[in-house]
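so ive been stuck on this for like two days lol. basically i have the seq below and the ligand is magnesium ion, smiles is in there too. i just want the complex predicted, nothing fancy, no docking runs or whatever. if the output looks off dont worry ill sanity check it later, just need somthing to start from for the group meeting slides
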Amino acid sequence: MKKNKDNFQQTKDQKENKQNCGFIGLIGRPNVGKSTLLNQLVGQKISITAHKAQTTRNRILGIRTELNTQIVFVDTPGIHRTEKLLNRKIVAYATETLRNTDLNLWIVEPLPESSLHKKDLSFLHIEDQGILKLLLEKAKRTVIVLNKIDTIPQGQILVCIEKLAGIADFAEIVPISALKSTNLEHLLETLKKYLPVHPFYFETHQVTDASERFLSSEFVREELFLRLKQEIPYSVAVIVEQFEDDPKCIKIACTICVERESQKGIIIGKKGEMLKKIGTAARKKIERLLGNKVHLALHVKVLKQWSNNAHHLRSLGFN
Ligand SMILES: Nc1nc2c(ncn2[C@@H]2O[C@H](COP(=O)(O)OP(=O)(O)OP(=O)(O)O)[C@@H](O)[C@H]2O)c(=O)[nH]1
Ligand SMILES: [Mg+2]
């Protein structure tokens, strides 16, 4: 009954042009906390996170609906300089996003103390200098979000804000901690001011446009990212081969693609122990996501140099 009432109110607001809805891009260098922030803003884990750079490889939508406001957040891969084909493709997802959104959040980390005295833009990380240029040239409007303020003293937060305010005429600067959920309500209130009047793009209950299939493959990749060292996380891709939606137990089978035979051995581990650990941890996360019992089968195969091969990248969905 309540749902019908809500739907009736939604339709009425829509007819009276009272709905605000827009796309907001989460833009920044790798590892600054974009995906952590997305998950906090939609109240659910839909984008994987890790302490390693270049975790996110796709554009991932997170939708937050409150009364007559719907914000569609777009998580993006970290923008960085790179020669590798996979990385060039994922950086392009981010740069395309920032051109097409109603507003962008430029997520930055606290400036290191050693750079605070620098007068020109060199106090910014070199990759942030590139992002600044892109935002000034291509983006409609930008709000700077200073993340990870839990890692620095109060006084340093103010100095960082002062430095960032001097860069350009951006709409606002909002200090937050995505991890500790600090100041997120204030951030949301700030963002609502910049949303256009527009009917909702998505159903009110929807939190993402990503399929359960895609999210399952991402949760497997997250475990690979968290547990493997050096270059291996960057050499894996996960494909879902089977997804059988049986209410008693959902059967999922994934192939983990690696670039070299030696990597396959490391992922499988002694007597298959590593792969077993990865599978158990990923299965638990997928069960939480789907609210159902899951059977997860993992298989590892070598797809030589896939991350630098246009044909393999296309077959893995990187267009
Ligand atoms: N201390 C602290 N750590 C944070 C905060 N937000 C994110 N992190 C940590 O920073 C690391 C990177 O977070 P992600 O959300 O994966 O970063 P990202 O910007 O999405 O990274 P890419 O996808 O690689 O571009 C993780 O270890 C997070 O736990 C924060 O507010 N404070
Ligand atoms: Mg990310």
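The two ends are 44 Å apart (CA to CA). The chain has a mean pLDDT of 94.
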